[in-house]
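Severity: low
Component: inverse-folding endpoint
Summary: output formatting inconsistent between runs
Steps to reproduce: submit the following structure tokens with default settings.
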């Protein structure tokens, strides 16, 4: 089995590679409105890319596999949609309220789940996520299977009209890039280094005096809150909140995005999210066969591209991506 650390490049060159790759990614995304690419597809992909990056922070650098990350995406989405439509708050307040809800949920569920490791941690997160799913199915404010429809987009800071497609695109892009840089800073900070050491050998980290449970809990909260940011942003693009975003299959999709793009790589989750969303967008004519195609690609990646798309490219060119 290929180790995550096999993706590593020489340390002195890693930062430069990642800065260049970020500049190329940012330039390409800024240019999207001037091309013929459907903007809603890119905005949706950016929301899921942020979701996958947040998930990758937990599993790729903390070694914690969560099968319930959809609960943060869905919870933030529901709270933001309710705040915008019922409370009529400003968009920026709606995003902050959604993130706060995801953060509070990650604290509560983290205190329960972080006490276990490996498959037990994964199963507890899955159980908590399903508990939230059935709760949202019955709770009046979510409107059950109908979801919250027709969410107003409003004006961010009273200036930016989010009903305008181009304005909305650059707002979503700006938030995505800032969140991406924040995640990049986290994984390259002393906290991130400790997190990697816990992933590689937790017992050794404990013997060095680190309180690993506290580090893992903080990583879980950061990941959950950033996943909530993705859920809040998605509301402005889709203008609805539904049970789909909190279902266990959404947790499976983010695992798929991360593995296809490259587990433990900086840019892998972004590429994985675009690949999966593009398949759903452009292969919709095949109906339920899309899931079969996704499953086939996942099997091919696991068998032949174990590092994921970005992981294999980085390994081939000896670059850190």
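Observed output (run 2 of 3):
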């Amino acid at each position: 089995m290929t180790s995550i650390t096999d993706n590593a490049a020489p340390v002195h060159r890693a930062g430069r590679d990642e800065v260049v790759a970020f500049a190329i990614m940012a330039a390409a995304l800024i240019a999207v409105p001037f091309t013929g690419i459907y903007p809603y597809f890119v905005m949706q992909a950016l929301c899921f890319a942020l979701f996958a990056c947040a998930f990758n922070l937990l599993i790729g650098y903390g070694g914690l596999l969560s099968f319930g990350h959809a609960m943060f995406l869905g919870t933030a989405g529901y709270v933001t949609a309710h705040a915008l439509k019922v409370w009529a708050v400003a968009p920026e307040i709606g995003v902050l309220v959604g993130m706060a809800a995801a953060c509070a949920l990650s604290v509560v569920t983290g205190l329960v789940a972080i006490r276990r490791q490996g498959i037990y941690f994964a199963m507890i997160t899955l159980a908590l996520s399903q508990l939230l799913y059935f709760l949202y199915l019955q709770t009046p404010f979510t409107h059950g299977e109908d979801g919250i429809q027709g969410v107003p987009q409003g004006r961010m800071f009273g200036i930016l009209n989010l009903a305008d497609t181009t304005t909305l695109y650059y707002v979503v892009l700006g938030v995505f890039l800032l969140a991406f840089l924040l995640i990049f800073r986290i994984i390259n900070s002393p906290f991130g280094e400790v997190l990697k050491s816990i992933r590689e050998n937790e017992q050794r980290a404990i013997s060095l005096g680190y309180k690993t449970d506290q580090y893992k809990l903080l990583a879980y909260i950061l990941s959950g809150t950033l996943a909530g940011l993705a859920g809040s942003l998605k509301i402005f693009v889709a203008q609805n909140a539904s049970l789909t975003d909190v279902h266990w299959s959404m947790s499976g999709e983010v695992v798929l995005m991360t593995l296809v793009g490259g587990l433990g790589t900086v840019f892998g989750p972004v590429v994985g999210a675009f690949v999966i969303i593009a398949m759903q967008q452009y292969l919709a004519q095949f109906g339920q066969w899309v899931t079969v195609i996704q499953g086939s690609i996942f099997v091919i990646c696991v068998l032949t591209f174990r590092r994921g798309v970005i992981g294999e490219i980085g390994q081939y060119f000896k670059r850190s991506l």
